[in-house]
Amino acid sequence: MKILALDSSGLVASAAIVEDDILIAEYTLNYKKTHSQTLLPMLDEIRRNTELDLKTVDAVAVASGPGSFTGLRIGAATAKGLGFALEIPLVEVPTLKGLTYNVWGTDRLICPMMDARRSQVYTGIYQFETNGHEQELRTIEPQCAVDVTVILEEINDLKQEVIFLGDGVAVYREMIEAKTKVPYIIAPPHRSRQSAAGIAVLGARYFAAGKIVSAKTHQPEYLRLSQAERERLNL
Question: Is it true that domain 2-95+194-232 has CATH number 3.40.605.10?
């Protein structure tokens, strides 16, 4: 099983290829360029350096949202284009679950945060549970767009140690430090941002379980209206 994965949901652009249980390649960039400039060249670099025959890919896993509206659209368009061209399905991986996979194996609560502006974050609460020799990801609070204080109150109510990660942590760190009443740690830089490898690994699980969509039907999950739509509705 060979899964090609994309994540352009946030500031980071990331592409990866996983074959069975092996991460063949990952290319991640977080530097002052738009995803429209970086994503396809990154994919081409992976293809050339790994001598990848795209016709051998079984599915394209894509971070399906929430996240940056522009970034999600670029990722969706790229994934759909590949799906149509290669006649293969897409696997929709919730952005925050993919981010959570960066800290696979911990027994702490995991709270990914992506900056959604206006004092809000795209967030959720998750926890890995051991099932035999496997780790299953349990959703405690599904991904949502809420005020930072709301998710911190929920974490305090759960009374368990938590790991924070994501670009929203740096933005709201002072608030996290002031309002979190349970023990917490903040993931280090190499684990705190989006990774297509996580999307690929989780996407492979979804693919094996038959959780696929066609390129035609895939749509990003934005969770809330865009700024332009909110302004039009005076929200």
Answer: no
